[in-house]
From TrEMBL:
Molecular function GO labels: mRNA binding; structural constituent of ribosome
Biological process according to GO: translation
Record Pfam families: HHH_3
Protein name (record): Uncharacterized protein
Signal sequence annotation: none
Length: 140
């Protein structure tokens, strides 16, 4: 991930020749491209990173982080549908780029009871970039 703010890329000899607006646009494209290739974990990604996922924006990314803070770790992609602003179309667009790590394997988040308040089961396919629409095909 690129962590350098665009205004700092032009520091030095050529700082006046760098167009800050163009640098911000290019940085956004690079981050979106990288996230689209490797995806992002719903239980670890920041609001800033989530907003670059196709189908999400700043408001829905903020909603994901808020939901995670209030309800614990995501146990499935289906929980995304509980976020305000993520309807059928947004879910269709973003689900393939978001993964859900197995909460049982992550010792940093505490015991399972504190991680998730829902009874939803984690599906191993949620930990991959296989889109939920293709789960039946993948299971065959």
């Amino acid at each position: 991930y690129v962590k350098i703010e665009p205004q700092h890329l032009g520091q030095g000899q050529y700082q006046l020749s760098a167009d800050e607006k163009l640098l911000k646009q290019k940085l956004a494209l690079v981050v979106r491209d990288r996230v689209s290739l490797i995806g992002a974990d719903l239980n670890q990604a920041s609001k800033h990173l989530l907003q670059y996922i196709c189908g999400l924006n700043e408001a829905t990314a903020k909603g994901i982080v808020k939901y995670r803070e209030e309800h614990g770790a995501f146990r499935s992609r289906e929980q995304l549908k509980k976020i305000k602003g993520i309807g059928a179309v947004a879910f269709q667009q973003c689900a393939g780029f978001l993964t859900v790590s197995n909460p049982e394997e992550d010792s940093e988040r505490g015991p399972p009871a504190k991680r998730a308040k829902t009874m939803e089961e984690w599906c191993p396919l949620d930990g991959t970039i296989v889109h939920p629409d293709d789960y039946k095909t993948a299971e065959k």
